[in-house]
Amino acid sequence: MKYMLIHCGDESIAYAPQNDCRIPGTPAARALETWLNDLTARGVLLDGARLRPVSDATTVQVREGNLVVSDGPFAETKEQVAGYDVIDCADLDEAIEIASCHPSARTGTIEVRPLWEG
After folding, report:
1. 12-57, pLDDT tens digit by residue?
2. 28 with 110: CB under 8 angstroms?
3. Domains of the chain by range and CATH?
């Protein structure tokens, strides 16, 4: 079954130098590389990407036929969506195990959501 792992966290924590996986050679970057290498070796990683900071987001809505475009996220939250991975696992237990090993699970939240297939 395919699952999307949605990485959420507080950008001020995620982008602190000790936690920033975008900086090569940091403990966070090495931990992420190890996690990705494990998933690749297991053959479960189908896709994934980091998202740019929420300050680069644009929100699009249509209300009563009118287009509303805003800078930034729609909702005010403590955590922002930082990236995603799509994995193909035997079951939810395996998806949870994989999510629990992602480095950002230590400072944020990983939402595990099954994909509609068919």
Report:
1. 776 777 777 777 888 888 999 999 999 999 999 999 998 888 888 8
2. no
3. 2-53+79-114 (3.30.70.1060)
